[in-house]
Amino acid sequence: MSAPSSLDLSPSPSPAPQPIALEVRVPGMLRSCTDQRGRFTVQAATLAEAMQVLLATYPLLRVHLFDEQGAQRRHVLFFYNDQDMRKLPRWDFPLRPGDRLSVVQAVSGGATEVTRRV
Amino acid sequence: MRAGTQVRLLVGTHKGLFIFTSDAGRASWQMEGPMLAGWEVYSVLGDHRRTPRLYTGTSHVAYGTTIRVSDDFGATWREIENGPRYSPESGFKLNRIWQLAPGHPSQPDTLYAGVDEAGLFVSHDRGETWQELDALTKHPTRPDWWAGGGGLCLHTILIHPHNPQRIWVGISAVGVFRSDDGGAAWQSKNKGLLDTHTEQPAGEVGSCVHKMVIDRANPDTLYMQEHLGVYRSDDGGDRWVTMEEGLPAANLHHPEWWAFGFPLVQTRAGNLFLVPLESSEQRNVAGGDLRVYRRAAGAAAWEPTAAITPHEPRYTSVLRDALATDDLAEPGVYFGTTGGDLFYTLDEGDSWQRIPGRLPRIFTVKAWTLDA
User: Fold this and answer.
1) Of B14, B38, B285, B310, which has the fewest beta carbons less than 10 angstroms from its beta carbon?
2) Could you tell me if residue A31 is inside a domain?
3) How many Å separate Cα B223 from the centre of its chain?
4) CATH number of A85's domain
5) Kind and range of the H or E element at A63?
């Protein structure tokens, strides 16, 4: 299966998973869209729902993350924990306590933490 | 001019907006900024037809483009949620907002936005919501539109001062369009212009307007800095003729070097100003001599204005929206360079002064005059 080519907000399968407080991180350039907060939580049961809640809570984010056709902008990355969400086959899986959703500017900064290769 | 008059220079750069404020004497300037740090500010407008409001067109290579407004002279900013946006069906992308222009004085809530990919948007509620005037992008010539070096950008919007239904727009490297019904229909207005060297076949479009202004005394007269020359039209754009006498290109022994440049402005006194560049290929001032040229009202030729002191090589350029004038009785002329310097004259170019500071690459300069 290929990664979602556009915003995939498909419903989660039953039985309905329980919502958790998912930590979300956004880069500094976009904090004007999130009440100046770089780290916060959204209540969601699945990753797809988390993205939906994120955009509903902070609608100004949408234009910065997705283009006119609804496709993820080329230089914007979403990470589910350490996984590039473009490479996930679907987003409607249950979240687990401690999960994290990070919005990152590709290549040229925006990340608050980096991983050093060892 | 009343006591308490303030002039604000609104300077949009590659990395944010800077505002320089002075009193009517304009002898010293106080800088604020960078505001909207990190964002490209390709367009800025100070509008006081209602209460004073600043508008900016901000963009970023990763995060797209939006309009932001400030009602407190830049202290705080608010992003517009329902800004210009092409429909998914159009297939067009909104890459940058190149120009923000006020509507006719009789329509104080109206603004226009010119964008890349080329198109025109209008707001009738002081910028809160925007609609595309899509007759332009549905023009029969649209398949032949070709991007210039800066992109396929609609960068100039002119409103006839006595007829709000008459609108001109300039698009690189496409040409001029005019509407006589408020944007419901458009006609190309490129007769007399040369065909730019795009890869498209010669036709009614394919001229690369860089900047256009309306004559302050006679709004049927337009002036244009184009990719291949400097022009005027005395019939609202129906026909263009060259007006290059005295420009340095005429003195060069290189027939492929045209009277190339980007910005153009006219002061209240009717004097025109532009900044010739060496060539389309090099796009810097010739020999490092940053020199503004003036065509005095009614004069038969352009002439160089005073040299900028101290004399030093300045291999730089002035972009199409980075030359401006204010509304004072003794108007100032201001420009910003790609090297981040700001210069101005208060005597129509007989002397130039530099505003201290070096900014990021300057895209746009606007002078906003307000009575306290």
Assistant:
1) B310
2) yes
3) 13
4) 3.10.20.30
5) helix A60-65
Q: Could you tell me which chain A residue has the CA closest to the CA of B59?
A: A64
Q: Which CATH architecture has domain B6-370?
A: 7 Propeller (2.130)
Q: Classify residue A79: in a domain, yes or no.
A: yes
Contact B200, B206 (CB under 8 A): yes
CA-based R_g, chain A, Å: 14
CB B283, CB B361: distance < 8 Å: no
User: Does residue A115 register a pLDDT over 90?
Assistant: no
Is B76 part of the contact surface with chain A (CB cutoff 8 Å)?
no
Distance from CA of A112 to the nearest CA of B (A): 17
Blockwise average pLDDT, block size 10, chain B, 372 residues: 84 98 97 97 97 98 96 98 95 96 98 98 98 98 90 97 98 96 97 76 85 97 94 97 86 61 96 91 87 97 95 95 96 98 98 97 98 80
Tokens of B73: 């002279």
Q: Hey, what amino acid is at A61? A: L
Give me the pLDDT at residue A107, please. Answer: 75
- This model of the complex carries an ipTM of 0.88
Dihedrals φ, ψ of A52, to 5°? -65, -45
C-beta separation of B154 from B179 below 8 A: no
**Total domains in the fold of chain A:** 1
Residue B295 near residue B271, CB atoms below 8 Å:
yes
Domain spans, chain B: 6-370
> Per residue in A68-98, is it b (16+ CB within 10 Å) or e — as a string?
beeebbebbbbbbeeeebeebeebbbbbeee
Give A-chain residues touching B94 at CB under 8 angstroms.
68
Q: Do A63 and B87 touch (CB under 8 A)?
A: no
Give the integer Cα–Cα distance in Å for B362 and B322.
Answer: 7
Residue A89 maps to a domain: yes
Q: What is the pLDDT of residues A90-108, one digit of tens each?
A: 999 999 999 999 999 987 5
**Is A15 domain-assigned?**
no
What is the SS3 assignment for B337? coil
Rounded distance between C-alpha atoms, residue B343 and residue B339, angstroms: 12
User: How confident is the model over A4-62, as pLDDT tens digits?
Assistant: 555 656 555 567 889 999 999 999 999 999 999 999 999 999 999 999 999 999 999 99
Domain with A42 in it: 20-105
pLDDT band at A76 (very low <50, low <70, confident <90, very high): very high
Distance CA B327, CA B325 (A): 7
CB contact under 8 A, A63 and B38: no
Chain length of chain B? 372
The whole-number pLDDT of residue A117 equals 62
Beta strand spans in B126-226 (E): 131-132, 153-160, 163-172, 175-179, 187-188, 209-214, 222-226
Interface of B with A in 83-102 (CB under 8 A): 83, 85-88, 90, 92-94
